[in-house]
Amino acid sequence: MYSKILKVAVLLAILLFPLGCKKEESTILKGTIIDFYTNEPLQGAAIFIMKWHKTDEQYQLFKILSSDANGNFEFVEEDNLDFYIGEIHKQGYIVKHSNISNYTGKIKRGEINESIIPLVPFDSWLSLTVNKVSPGKSKIYLSVFSHILNSEIRASQGRVSLMKDELELTEGQTYTQFPLVASNEMLTIHWDFKPLTPWSPFSTPFRDSIFVTRGDTSAVTITY
After folding, report:
1. How far apart are CA 25 and CA 110, in angstroms?
2. Is 40 exposed, middle or buried (0-12, 13-18, 19+ CB in 10 A)?
3. What is the pLDDT of residue 20?
4. Which of 68, 98, 137, 208 has a 20 to 30 Å separation from 51 between CA atoms?
5. pLDDT class for 40, splitting at 50, 70, 90?
6. How are strands ordered across the β-sheet holding 46-53?
7. Could you give the CA distance from residue 219 to residue 126 in angstroms, rounded to a whole number?
């Protein structure tokens, strides 16, 4: 009797073993890259896939995908290791730091995950002119803040690139710069006679705002 029970138990274990060891389904990430304003698909965007490296115990660049003519891309993770979209690059657009990952809940393991990712065009110019007309203060500190840049690349703290924090002019001198900026947004130009600490510009009494029109050059002048 005991022998028969043992044989049945062994048989059940053999039959159920494959079910208990069934491999988890692959995690699939499908995405579409589009223009933020027109919703048109963007071909040739570079999507950086960052994957967990067991040996080094850190995320490393695993693969760079490219969006097709319909803006689509696909990534299949068969081993279900941690991965996420690091950056997305496309000429003429702001680099996007993505938060699409499995540790933010945006990627579900063993499932097909689909995302639409808009990129903001980088096709406008700000004409910033600073005039010194009095023999008073010798220098000013200035910074241009972009809400779009801050949301797309948080490490930038929203500061428009190529902008000098410290500017010294002699009386009667004019300084002009034409930094590239995002389309259709309200930029804020902060300036003071003392250094601007991140992000004390919001409390400075000197500020100007200007709406940047897509594909156009918008101008603002500071006189001190």
Report:
1. 5
2. exposed
3. 47
4. 68
5. very high
6. 58-66, 46-53, 83-89, 96-97
7. 6
